[in-house]
Fold this protein.
Amino acid sequence: MNVIKHFVNGQLFDGNSKRKGKVFNPATGDQSSEVNFATTTDVNIAVDAAKKAFVSWSQKTPLFRARILFKFKELIEKNSDELTKLIVSEHGKVYEDARGSLTRGLEVVEFACGIPQLLKGEFTENVGTNVDSWSTRQPLGICAGITPFNFPAMVPMWMFPISIACGNTFILKPSEKDPSCSMRLAELFMEAGLPKGVFNVVNGDKEAVDAIINNRDISAVSFVGSTPIAKYIYENCAKNEKRVQALGGAKNHCVVMPDADLDQAVNGLMGAAYGSAGERCMAQSVAVAVGKIADPLVKNLSKKVEALKVGPGLDKKSEMGPLVTQAHLEKVKGYVDIGVKEGAKLVVDGRNLKLQGYEKGFYMGGCLFDQVTKSMRIYKEEIFGPVLSVVRAKNYEEALKLVNDHEFGNGVSIFTRDGDTGRSFASNVQIGMVGINIPIPVPMAFHSFGGWKRSLFGDQHMHGPEGIRFYTKLKTITSRWPSGIKSDPEFIMPTMK
Ligand code: NAD
């Protein structure tokens, strides 16, 4: 059995725990590895390594750090096939989708290569007579990242390249369901010339997470995962005086107006609802059909959902792979049962899909519900699987209210040909990331990613300019040189003349 260890101080580290987790290949249903679960002592060993490394890493010039990031970028590109296959083998998503997610992570590394430019501060000459003032951004110290199963490369890469570029050292606790990609990225970063101890990976579960929360040497925590855990991280990191950004779950709506280009909306929804088997925080799980477009929308969607090609991620013909684990598959199917009991109309039922030769794999087909209402659990709760709910709304106002009343606020999109409607929607919708005729409006690496409401606790989004702000603290210096200036004691609040 392949054993996945930790990566601490530049090398593999067994850790001291007897507790281990199981990692599966979702396509076959077979266990592929076991992963060591870190104890509090193991996490503290990693923090000690990061603390020692911070002393010299934080003193390196931004240009020095950028050159290592450039090399890291080259190595990710060179090893992209291997990294992509690691994602597919533990998460299950189809190869091209996995490759796309790796590219979105790589783009954050590319952004971080600009760190000499990004860390430049502000300067004002003569804020007072012969007095200058400037501001600079300095690293925080040791930062940690705790990440979910659904993007084993991209989400960790939203965090550690920027944090490390800013001069911090980093501890990553990836999802215990698919940790191998993070381990390989750590090796590649070392190969790129990163000094030991700057980037560490500890594997595990709640025990490792709690050890991160309670370690006083860690200055900041970035979290991405479900809302209950995001809230727990936010509250407990704050109690321990850490800076924290905690991104949570989602229920993303796609409003389809009566004037929308129907083909564009249907194709957009198909990719956004069923891509990566719906296991995306930006997946669209609710289509809000406004007025007369509802019947043709459901009809066209149902044909395409029935025709979805489900299969192993490495099969080029597959459009949708399996779910991540048996337990998650059962949870998602359980939600479909709930929807039926609640009275929603199950137009396409993918619960009983079986694939010949892959009978033990964690597959289900796409499911499509119509006549979903806002009081139903399948509308209110995040399902995180290939299940799309259609809710019918009389008009634009009702559709907007539906989106704004939902507890989550990650992403949303609207399909319309009307500029007024698109503009009004963008300005009035209470959601962090908005698409107009764009089904999955994920901001690029040089912008920032984050939701509103219970999809994000904290005040900074991830990567882009907000990432630089999150991983640095601002210092403002005001200076005067004594030559020729008479100085007497001043007992009043200084004002600049
Ligand atoms: P999860 O919350 O179960 O796990 C996330 C991380 O928290 C993992 O590293 C896990 O080990 C750890 N964890 C789990 N239970 C814990 C506990 N009780 N105490 C401390 N730590 C714990 O999430 P998941 O199932 O891995 O990922 C899916 C969720 O992530 C979905 O809700 C999805 O919407 C969300 N997500 C959000 C975004 C976003 O940007 N907002 C992006 C990706 C995924």
Notes: The pocket of nicotinamide-adenine-dinucleotide is lined by residues 146-151, 155, 173, 175-176, 205-206, 209, 224-226, 229, 247-250, 281, 382, 384, 410, 451, 455 (CB under 6 Å). Residues 252-436 form a domain with the Aldehyde Dehydrogenase; Chain A, domain 2 fold (CATH 3.40.309.10). The mean pLDDT is 97. The radius of gyration is 25 Å.
